[in-house]
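Example 3.2
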Amino acid sequence: MSENAHPFDRTQLRRRRERVAGNWKNHNFLVKEAGARLVDRLDDVSRSFSSILDLGRNGGEIAAILTGRSGVQTIVECDISPAMLHLEAVSASSKKSCIHLLVADEEFLPFSDHSFDLVLSCLALHRVNDLPGTLVQIRRALRPDGLFLGCFFGGGTLGEMRAAWTEAEISEEGGASPRVAPFVDIRDAGMLLQRAGFALPVVDSDTITVCYENAFGLMHDLRGMGETNILRNRRPGFTRRATLIQMADYYRDMFTREDGRIPASFEIITLTAWAPHPSQ
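Structure, written as tokens:
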């Protein structure tokens, strides 16, 4: 298997999401914020959606917002991690919609064509090896004139940490290794939607900046989010202590703000597109 064609170790992704599930609610702030922004976009659409797929369920943040929404009858929540699927995000008393949980890999969707009116995906698709292929599967799973709303981390994400790691590894180890995933650039996202056969594609991005006391606080959150390095060509073994300390020092020296804290940038790219229909 080519590392260039399949840069992400999806087995490792599943293991790490299994580990973080128990403490997920202490680290899901980005998913909650991005999910709320994603669902807010439905308010601009003058129709309801009865059958919905939440692709990359996380802790059920999307379903918690959608449950009880007018017209919603069925929500299918998928995640690669069984442990994440069983996190309780919606209380039993509030389940006015029928929710189904399914272990499924975003790269291999087990759905028939034209199964859903709406597919949403919140901060999951940046970890798939074949994003164009996944988008094609999403389009096929949608009924004609069905809507796809998805968001994922874009190319500007963790730019500060990427720069600090590069400087530290060059200084301590004589060369840099892949530490931060190769996120999709916003200039490519619209083209990917068109290649996948979607109609009326719209792409936009926003940046959420989170501030920390130091780089170790950021790394603690990334571990809790299950967003640590799953690249196949990552450097094997443990990171040298000297390299880790040097990275934190470079991060502080290059990016400290006036209040003494360091920023971590998360670019959120949002895709909006429709399954083709003659009425469009």
